[in-house]
Amino acid sequence: MSNTLQPLSDHWRNRYLLMRHGHSQANQQGVIVSSPERGIENFGLSEYGEQQLAQLVADWQWPVPTRVVHSDFLRTTQTAARVAAKFGLVPSVDTRLRERNFGELEGRGDEHYPSIWALDAQSADHQHHGVEAVSAVAQRMQAVIADWEQQESGATILIVSHGDPLQILLTMLANKPLTQHREQQALLPASITQIGG
C-alpha cells in the first residue's frame, strides 16, 4: 500500500507524503470522473474506501503531517478530512491537485484509460479526445511542491491527489521522461509515497 522513494534532491526543505485518495465510487463503478463539474460534489469514497481510511488512520506508519493539502474533488476531500481529523489539522484545498481531465472520455468506462496512456507514451503534449496533456499536469503538480518549498521549511505536508497526477509528478521528480509515467509502479487507492525529508 505504500512506496518510499529516496530523497530526489539534497535540497528538500520539507517532507512530502503523496497520497492517492481512498477507493472511490468511481473506482467501484469503473467510470472516469475527471471533470470538476462531476467530481467536486459526487463520486466520493466507496464503503471500501471508508474502511481503507479507517484502517490507515488507525495504523498510521508515516511521519505525522503538519499540513494536509488536497484536490477539491469529493474523493480527495473526504480522504484528506479523515487523515486531518486524526492529527487535529484543518485541511486546505489546492485546485492544482485535481484529477487529470480526460476530456471526451468523461463518464465513460475506465477501460478507455489504456488507449490514452498509449498516446502518452508517444507524446507528453498530446491532447487527443480533449485530454489534459501530461506536460500540463506535470507543470501544475510541480508548482504545488515549488510553492511549499518556498513557503515552509521543516514541514511534513500530506498532499492528497489522484493516480495519474501523482504518477506524473513522481516521474518528473525522478528526472524521467514524462512519456514514461505509466512505467511508474501504479499507485493504489489510499497509498502513500514519501519524498524529501
From TrEMBL:
SMART domains registered for this protein in UniProt:
PGAM
Q: Which Gene3D superfamilies match?
A: Phosphoglycerate mutase-like
**CDD domains, alphabetized:** HP_PGM_like
PANTHER family with a match to the protein in the record: PHOSPHOGLYCERATE MUTASE FAMILY PROTEIN
Name listed for the protein in its UniProt record = Histidine phosphatase family protein
Q: What taxonomic classification does the UniProt entry list for its organism?
A: Bacteria, Pseudomonadati, Pseudomonadota, Gammaproteobacteria, Oceanospirillales
